[in-house]
Each structure stands twice: as structure tokens, then as C-alpha cells.
Specification:
Elements: H1 5-13, H2 16-34, H3 39-49, H4 56-84, H5 97-118, H6 123-135, H7 143-156
Helix pairs in contact: 1-7, 2-5, 2-6, 2-7, 3-4, 3-5, 4-5, 5-6
């Protein structure tokens, strides 16, 4: 759910083409921020740039990338919990390797999900859900950067 009123209003007044541009721009932003480099994701971003949204195999590939990183994050959390349980500790510090690995996997899964949502048949949902996923590609939900992306597209186009 998008809580930022400026972004909500911009999405409501955006045209379908602008919504598609927003979905692509936030997906790129999410991938850069999460440092997600994957050939399937790169191909998906090119297809989205060319406004091709209907390749079921490519969408399945993007979905698999998201699943891979979600599973990776889950496994890192599981290892962390197994390691800590005998010590009576519930969570490692944020700078521990397992916590960093979990976060990296989670952020990359969110970035891949942002790309996947950009393919959605409904341009509004593509933008809205893509923004939500992009917000979760770092520990600081960077509303300002996403707002700038959205407004640059909605305000710059006639």
C-alpha cells in the first residue's frame, strides 16, 4: 500500500502510458538500489522498455529470480536462528554476515518483484505494486527518490 499522498495523487492522474513509464523507472531504480544484476532481469527491462508485456516465459523467468532471492533470504535467516538458538540470542546485530546476507536476498527479491509487476496487464497496478516493491529494496524506505521518479514522469509529459 502506498502511503505517500503526493505519489498517490500523481498515480491517480497519470495516463496509462505514464503509469507504464513509472513501473519501468521504479523497477530500474529497485534493481540498481538492490544491486540486482541478472541476465533474465536485464532482458525483462529491455522488453518493458520496448513496451512488450506479454512473454509468459520471460515473466516466469523473472518470477523464478524473485523466488530464488526470497528463498536465499529465508535460508540465511534460518541459519542465523539455528546459530543463535543455543546461545539464547534472538537476533544477530545488523552488521553480521548472516543479517547482511538475509537483507541482500530480501532486497533483491523485492527488486525482481518490482520488475515482475511492471508486466502486469493493468498499468495502474503495475506502477502501484512496483513502487511498493521498490520501497522495500533497502532498509531506508526512500520515499523522496521514488516521489522524484513518479513526478518527473507525470509532470514532464503533457
Amino acid at each position: 500500500m502506498i502511503e505517500d499522498e503526493v505519489i498517490k495523487k500523481a498515480l491517480e492522474k497519470a495516463t496509462p502510458d505514464q503509469l507504464r513509464s513509472i513501473a519501468l523507472a521504479v523497477a530500474r531504480f529497485a534493481c540498481e538500489r538492490a544491486e540486482l544484476k541478472d541476465p533474465v532481469i536485464e532482458l525483462a527491462l529491455l522488453e518493458l522498455q520496448d513496451r512488450r508485456y506479454d512473454d509468459p516465459y520471460l515473466k516466469k523467468g523473472v518470477e523464478r529470480v524473485a523466488e530464488h532471492w526470497d528463498e536465499y533470504a529465508f535460508k540465511m535467516r534460518e541459519i542465523e536462528e539455528e546459530k543463535l538458538a543455543p546461545l539464547g540470542i534472538t537476533r544477530l546485530p545488523d552488521d553480521s554476515p548472516f543479517t547482511k546476507a538475509h537483507d541482500m536476498g530480501f532486497f533483491r527479491a523485492r527488486a525482481a518483484s518490482s520488475v515482475l509487476f511492471a508486466f502486469h496487464e493493468d498499468p495502474f497496478k503495475a506502477a502501484k505494486e512496483g513502487i511498493y516493491e521498490a520501497w522495500h529494496t533497502s532498509s531506508d524506505e526512500d520515499t523522496e527518490s521514488i516521489r522524484k521518479i513518479v513526478l518527473s514522469i507525470v509532470e514532464d509529459e503533457p
